[in-house]
Amino acid sequence: MLQEQSEPPATPVTDEDIAVRNQRFPRTFAAAAAQPPDEKFTRSLDLLCAGIATLIP
């Protein structure tokens, strides 16, 4: 399994932070929970590349 390696966030993420975002973006949280970690990583990378591609003339 692939894992993203990075430094922990500068400000710790609390359970309250997660609850607020879940309430604000329920469909996003539901969709993310339904995918395995490798699929989430691949999807995120695809979205990032698509965004960068829009900047290339």
Describe the structure.
The structure is a single chain. The protein has 57 residues and is an all-alpha fold. The protein is built from three helices and no strands. The radius of gyration is 14 Å and the shape is extended.
Along the chain, the helix and strand elements come as HHH
Q: Quaternary state, please?
A: single chain
Q: Compute the average pLDDT.
A: 86
DSSP summary, beta strand count: 0
Radius of gyration: 14 Å
Q: Quick one: overall form?
A: extended
Distance between the termini: 36 Å
Major pleated sheet: none
Number of helices: 3
Given helix and strand content, the structural type is mainly alpha
Q: Provide the β-strand percentage band.
A: under 5%
Fraction in helix = 55-70%
Low-pLDDT runs of 5+ residues are none
